[in-house]
């Protein structure tokens, strides 16, 4: 057993002791930790930017937009509303129980485990932490070993800024993650793929631990002939090729009528050139594939159709150009699994009915994007498909709306977070009923039962529901 794995039980015990002693419960502690987390992200932003550049060739501006600044915005939003969100919520009491008062209160669940992926290693580790701290929990953070520079930065900086009694970072790979999952947690928050998600869920069953699974899948895009294709292509190319396509909510493939597919492919070619220049390999704004295994997997998808643009690759640099494929069969390699890289297939459909059938034939996606000016098309997509989110006219941007829950459905995930939903994800909503001993109106239902009490039970008490 590795040294890091060996100390995991002691780490978990120490955090539980701190939680049981009430260290994390005061509002002042929660707000102080959120402030400290914000300071870490702003004061040490350059270190995180350097780490993200080393791990993913991520441009510092993109790191600010999608990683560091994203979490800072989440902190500011949660901090602004936290006192109001924590207030008890009054609930009406049925007449049969009056006089009485009922309410719900949020209490922290306890000790939380957050397991993050490599593609957004700052955002997807620390955004859940914001909700867990706001809810008053102790937290173990497990950064991805596939983003080693960012993982090392987290291990170094988190203990410097946050309360070591209640927040810990555990680095490592499969052995350390396995050791973590063997412990008892009060909530596990996992972001990643479905295969590991099943392992996490199976481990959680041992202690009946609630689990939030933020997974992924093939997020489709439907485009019809009612939209400006140049503007549509810019939006799709931006959402698809940021972070070299390694984004869980990136457009995975496009469904378009044949009359639209060709012109859209040409517009996407222009959009890629506008975003990344004639040679994206020279662009400081375009990332790289995280490792050789992912590079080889993605390379195998490049033959799934006719290349409209891109296709160039360099194994030594783990570079794959932004690639758009046309005439892609529905059973092509790129359509058999989540792409999670800079390969964008365009699949032709006969019409909207055909597109909806195809979407519904697969797993429910994490996101579904629609580019149309027709209200009837939007209505049918909303009512005839199921997905974690729907974006009309823009991909991926729903993550930036703090009031929208972010999460999947079915194979794309279970549970949601961001904003107030994060607070509730990491809290238990406790029911509270208070009824004075006098007057004792409950004597109407105490034994011995009489004919009058029977009439009461068959009448007024039925309103309890």
Give an overview in words:
The protein has 465 residues and is α/β, with parallel strands linked by helices. The protein is built from 16 helices and 18 strands. The chain has helices spanning 3-6, 8-20, 27-43, 45-56, 60-86, 123-134, 148-161, 174-181, 194-205, 229-241, 258-276, 292-299, 352-361, 375-384, 420-425, 451-458; strands spanning 89-91, 101-108, 111-115, 138-142, 167-169, 187-191, 211-214, 220-223, 253-257, 306-309, 313-314, 319-320, 323-326, 343-349, 368-371, 390-392, 413-414, 427-434. Helix 4 crosses helix 5, helix 4 runs antiparallel to helix 7 (148-161) and helix 10 (229-241) crosses helix 11. The longest helix is centred in the first third of the chain and has 27 residues, at 60-86. The chain starts with a helix and ends in a 7-residue tail after the last helix. The model has no long low-confidence stretch (mean pLDDT 96). Residues 11-432 form the Aldehyde dehydrogenase domain.
Number of helices, counting only DSSP H or I runs of 4 residues or more = 16
Q: How many β strands by DSSP?
A: 18
Kindly report how far apart the N and C termini lie: 54 Å
General shape:
globular
Strand order of the largest sheet: 10-13-14-9-8-15-16
Q: What percent strand?
A: 15-25%
Strand count, sense and barrel status of the largest sheet are: 7 strands, mixed
Residues in helix, %:
40-55%
Structural class: alpha/beta
Q: Could you tell me the mean pLDDT?
A: 96
Low-confidence stretches: none
Using only C-alpha atoms, the radius of gyration works out to 25 Å
